[in-house]
Amino acid sequence: MFDFFETLDEGVKCSIFADDIFIYCSHSSLEYIEKNLQNTMDNVYKWCTYWKLSISPEKSAIADLSEKRLHSTPPISYPGSPLPWKHSIKYLGIIFSKTNQNAAIIKGLRAKALRKINALKTIAYKSYGPRTKDLVGITNNGICSLFYYSCAITNKLSQIHFTICDTIQTIALRVVLGLPIWTPNIVLLKTAGQEILFEKKKSRDWTFNFFIKQVANGDHSPLFRQS
């Protein structure tokens, strides 16, 4: 699908994951959106014809995600078949609607992740539970994967939303590693062999002071108990 983006008309963007295609357009003029989306649909049909592929209009949908209220829905069609209008669209496990915007999307992901973290606590705090290495793997595959899977969407969010995602990751790692809440994130990630979900600035002074304190604590440090 390397040349699929050539089908997009001016102002139209898209996100592709496997066989899911999310095409969207934002503009102050509804006529502009209708015209360019329809041109894109025509181009997509030609593209599919060239590559001998097919798209089912019945399984497709179109929705208005703006704050404005539409008095009538513009007739956008995939050649020969009108696309059905819906109040919401699901893409990458996230439901998009007028009320479910960026903050609500992150709130939903955060709620899912916290439920999994609470479940993780039931096995992480037991002496006979899984090894730390296995718990980190569970964190990656069960919690961080929520954000990896939807990265095509979350990568477009603001720095405030990135911070929320990062916090979820560090909360989960503190649970599986048994490290205190005041452990600097960079130390936490290094211990787990991970990188932060979204890049942000870190303080080297915090890291240096933390290691000095752990060396002073010796065997009483939770870091030494990991080995």
TrEMBL record:
Coiled coil: none annotated. It holds the Pfam family RVT_1. GO terms for biological process: DNA biosynthetic process. It comes from the Eukaryota. Residues 3-95 form the Reverse transcriptase domain. SUPFAM superfamilies: DNA/RNA polymerases. This is Reverse transcriptase domain-containing protein.
